Amino acid sequence: MEMARVLQIFDTTLRDGEQSPGVSLNPQEKVEIAKQLARLGVDVIEAGFPVASPGDFAAVQAVAEEVEGPYICALARAVAKDVERAGEALRSADKPCIHTFIATSDIHMKYKLNKRPDEVLRMAVDAVRLARSYVDMVEFSAEDATRSDRDFLCEVFAAVLENGAKIINIPDTVGYATPQEFYDLITYIREHVPGIDQAIISVHCHNDLGLAVANSLAAVKAGAQQVECAVNGLGERAGNAALEEVVMALRTRQDHYGAITNVVTEQLYRTSRLVCALTGVSVQPNKAIVGDNAFAHESGIHQDGVLKERTTYEIMTPESIGLRQSRLVLGKHSGRHAFREKLRELGYSLTEKDINRAFERFIELADKKKAITDRDIEAIIETGRFAVPGTFILEYVHVVSGNTTVPTATVRIRHGDEVVEEAACGDGPIDAVYRAINRATKVPVHLLDYALQAVTGGADALGDATVRVKDNGHIHIGRGTSTDVIEASALAYVHAINKIVNSREKYQSAGEV
Ligand code: KIV
Ligand code: ZN
């Protein structure tokens, strides 16, 4: 059998993914995700767009400092100021990469850039040269490549390669291409760009017509060596190609694509959950690979088949993405040792302090819920791990509600040595709780949305509440879990308020507000 070639996976969850509507990650959250991406084994992490804001610059800088393994990449338009900021943000990266781009389609050059093709070509070359003065690894993208004149596209690629670019990226920026067209375009570029043999051909597909993964795979078939994608398919508008789908398609159909990746697929599920937790964007139940139903067999015929022989209806195993069947694990009488063992088995490596904190939450939960599953433990870790320094601590929440009474809530909040109790009425019990918390903390909150999910089935299921709030143009996600949905909702709201207070302090010291 022919040796499979190894493809590079370029992850853009922290850049294009973060451009998804309503998603905003602070530097600490980006570092958490980047560390998990490094464990996942991606080759490149695009950490952000440093010129966009001081927060984005700080995030790229933090990822460059703290994350080892993959290339750390920063985005820059093909203008000097952007490239310089990217170079500065990447200063402490072991393996830095600058990704510079400019649009090459007539429609973008005429209406967006107001530039002639020769001016665009010059800007591309100048940006690549400048980027090479900062770093060795430079990627150039021709934005809107799929709607560009093919010969001009090839001319630009040849010029940037001659001037030091090592990767040329072909984005389907608006998700317009079909798989056959995209295959043909990659083939054309391979045949018409001088020097292409020395370069890495990369592709970056958007999902406006639901074709991002299919187009990326067609490009692999045509010889592309790098695929850009985002966890859970996050990204501008309808998103980017979903990393987990690209990787599992290549693994499951290696016979067809003849290519493998360095991704440790057993980390896919954990990575997806982490990204859901920190972005506040969950995946639909029927999402390929990581959706709740991706490995659930509902009909009798299917269940019967799987019980007789798994491969009748399963083309990949849940274990291959790191998903264990949710089963009973620990109970009220399980000790610290058993808990620690379970964390190890689930693949967590936490500090002693985090283990102790998680164990306290586990004991509290075991008092209320008989059957604790792996998913419950994951929820405990996910919410506990990203706790911000507790400026405000919810000590108590009490609600009176019903279909014939005005919902009323009382809360007690600790703030340092000060304890404040407040009550409020609302349109519903959660609204009443949030109004009472507003009074107690005196932090004005612009609530964008609120969602509640059950972590596992059953009447005593753990409720997982997520709120998204906006403050000074920054979006913050708060999360809380409890078997009591009112308490989970209150915890999520207080979590978001603590993030607001913390980030205000940071932005003030960075001179942003
Ligand atoms: O979609 C796109 O064209 C991009 C470029 C910056 C690569 O995200
Ligand atoms: Zn994009």
How would you characterize the overall build of this protein?
Helix 5 runs parallel beside helix 6 (150-162). The chain contains 17 helices and 17 strands. An eight-stranded parallel beta barrel has the order 1-2-3-4-5-6-7-8, surrounded by eight helices. Strand 15 and strand 16 form a beta hairpin. The protein starts with a strand and ends with a helix. It is of the alpha/beta class and 513 residues long. The chain folds into three domains: 5-279, Aldolase class I (TIM Barrel), CATH 3.20.20.70; 300-385, no CATH class; 393-509, 2-Layer Sandwich (Double Stranded RNA Binding Domain), CATH 3.30.160. 41% of the residues lie in helices and 21% in strands. Zinc ion binds at residues 16, 171, 173, 204, 206, 236.
Proportion of residues in extended strands? 15-25%
Oligomer: single chain
Tell me the structural class.
Answer: alpha/beta
Largest sheet: 8 strands, parallel, barrel
Number of helices: 17
* Biggest β-sheet: strands ordered side by side in the sheet: 1-2-3-4-5-6-7-8
Rg? 25 Å
Bound ligands, each once: 3-methyl-2-oxobutanoic acid, zinc ion
Shape estimate: globular
Ranges where pLDDT stays below 50 over 5 or more residues in a row are: none
Number of strands: 17
Under the CATH scheme, the architecture of the largest domain is Alpha-Beta Barrel
What is the CATH third-level topology name of the largest domain? TIM Barrel
Q: Provide mean pLDDT, rounded.
A: 91
The portion of residues assigned to helices is: 40-55%
State the end-to-end distance: 61 Å
Whole-number count of domains: 3
* CATH superfamily membership of the largest domain: Aldolase class I
